[in-house]
Amino acid sequence: MSLSKRVKLRKNHQALSTSQIMLQVILACIPGIVALTVFFGWGTLINIIWLGLLALAFEALMLSLRQRQVIFYLKDYSALLTAVLLGICIPSTSPWWLGVIGIGFAIVIAKHLYGGLGQNLFNPAMVAYVVLLVAFPVEMTDWVVPRGSGTSPPDLLVSLQAFFSGDATGIDAYTGASAMDLFRNERGGMTITEFWQQNPAFGLLGGLGWEWVNLGFLFGGLWLLYKGIISWHIPFSMLAVMVLLAALFYDNGSSLSGGSPMMHLFSAGTMLGAFFIATDPVTAATTPRGKLIYGALIGITVYVIRVWGAYPDGIAFAVLLGNFAAPFIDYYTKLSVTQNEK
Q: Could you identify which of 70, 85, 118, 125 might form a hypothetical disulfide with 2, taking C-beta atoms 3.0 to 4.6 angstroms apart as the criterion?
């Protein structure tokens, strides 16, 4: 099913084109990108610019090989949006070659080998992220220590040197495990309060810096809701289920607790996942009831992976599982509506 058939958006009684939708989503990412740059340095912007150039090159190559109109399809901004999302998700210390592999896999394998925009079964950015995480776990888990935790993020020159050289030696003094990784693996027998007070990687609500990053993406997501680019069903369902599970298993913050609801909402990539990734109109469920089920499935999976799984965050894995289940969810929710009408 094509994107134009699956996305029925209207603004002032005029349907938005694919390029307008993609561009609005990219613009809505800006508050979160600004927060990432302020707290973690220039690496995210470098990633986005580099991946954007690569995405356009890979997109043009595949369109040419498929004998499609290159300029026409490049102007839909879909490849650029994939680059922006992947550039946000990978660590800001990523070397140049990591981006080549990631965006190449996203555009060539996850998008065009499935038939191009509107035909892909899985979110291309998340497919690329999971491939990179499995293949290069060291590079994909080396995060910049946030501003305010006792050090400042690397300046532009240091970030560029690490990016072009592919050698993290010069940037090691600025990097470490993410807040969620520390929470999972470094607590020992401490309660959440004890660990929180002794670790400068945490702020008031979640990971230091990540609170503002999540607020930035929350603001952008609410703007997309206001504009009618996305519906409320998936973000609401995903976040509500995560809050419910976190509240049920919180137990006032003992050494066995999986973390408070606020920590899960404002740490790692929660808001980016809820408003920008899970809501991808091509790979998500499409019926109102189906979207609620789809969002709940993602929320459950994220929480389970964060608390009991092998990774500190599970957005990418959860979204891909949701993508896999989306046709099944749509089929049975549409069937249910048809039977009720009869």
A: 118
DSSP 296: H
Q: How far apart are CA 117 and CA 30, in angstroms?
A: 24
CA distance 143 to 90: 9
How many residues are recorded in the chain? 342
Sequence-distant (6+) residues with CB within 8 A of 69 are 63
pTM of this prediction?
0.89
Tokens 């690490």, residue located: 162
Residue corresponding to tokens 């610019």: 49
Q: At what angle do helices 78-89 and 30-40 cross, to 10 degrees?
A: 30
- In whole angstroms, give the CA distance from residue 321 to residue 122: 9
| pLDDT attached to residue 326 | 95
Q: How many CB atoms lie within 10 A of CB 52?
A: 21
Question: What gap in Å lies between CA 263 and CA 339, rounded to an integer?
Answer: 42
Instruction: Return d(Cα 50, Cα 100) in angstroms, integer.
Output: 9
Sequence-ordered list of residues with C-beta below 8 angstroms from that of 79, at least 6 positions apart, any chain: 55, 56, 58, 59, 107, 111
Amino acid present at 244: L
Q: What is the pLDDT of residues 271-286, one digit of tens each?
A: 999 999 999 999 999 9
pLDDT exceeds 50 at position 169: yes
User: Within 10 Å of residue 65's Cβ, how many Cβ atoms?
Assistant: 10
Per-residue pLDDT band for 8 (boundaries 50, 70, 90) equals very low
User: Rounded CA gap, 93 and 167, in Å?
Assistant: 10
> Which two structure tokens, joined as six digits, stand for 38?
């302020």
Distances in whole angstroms, Cα of residue 203 to Cα of each of 27, 210, 217, 288: 27, 9, 18, 36
Contact 106, 140 (CB under 8 A): no
From the CB of residue 256, how many other CB atoms can be counted at a distance below 10 Å? Answer: 10
- For 286, other C-beta atoms within 10 Å of its C-beta total 21
The C-alpha atoms of residue 302 and residue 310 are separated, in whole angstroms, by: 12
